[in-house]
Design a protein that fits this description.
Elements lengths: L2 H18 L24 E3 L1 H9 L3 H13 L4 E7 L3 E6 L1 H14 L13 E5 L11 H19 L3 E5 L7 H14 L12 H13 L8 H12 L2
Parallel strand pairs: 4-5
Antiparallel strand pairs: 1-3, 2-3
Length: 232
Amino acid sequence: MTPAVLEDLVRATASDVLTRRGLALDALPADVGVERPRLPEHGDYATNVALRTAKKAGVPPRELATWLAEALAAQDGILSAEVAGPGFINLRLAADAQGAIVGAVLAAGASYGTGVEYEGRNVNLEFVSANPTGPLHLGAARWAAVGDALGRVLTARGAKVTREYYFNDAGAQIDRFVDSLIAAAQGRPTPENGYGGAYIADIARQVVAAEPGSPDLPDAQRREVFRRVASA
């Protein structure tokens, strides 16, 4: 059971509960919303539909949540539904309902998840764009995976996706970066507003190894060598 299928089930169940209780159907929001709870012990999914519906329906949130939880617990694919706090409903899915997703993926093969709703739309997707003046960190690597996955999903739904990695290798920050490398190569302290850290010394050694004598070149040539080799 996917989140979208679960949301449809919650909406249909809530609609049925409101009808049976003689409550206004227009109290139910169009997007009932299901999400992963922050703590896994609270269940597989949670919904605040009772909190968002109760006032307009004219009933206390926990009372409505109790009715909804009882109805949801009786649905196929729902292992349990429990009321929490002022009217949240924590849901646990049955094992067979979760396994059904795997079966659907295997049956559909490469066509799973494809669609046409974004056909004719152009999407420019810019992601990662890691800071070129510092070491690559886990956050940048994570966004590389997220951005690539999002691009694949959009493409699968019919969009024409252009992927862009914005490499900001110009401006004041790069000037400060180059100044920091030259200072490290010449054994001088890090310039004011420059970049420090062991990685600066490591890169400076690599530049000198690739271009021996570069620290002693005239200033303009020296800066160009350090900029070119460091960004290679």
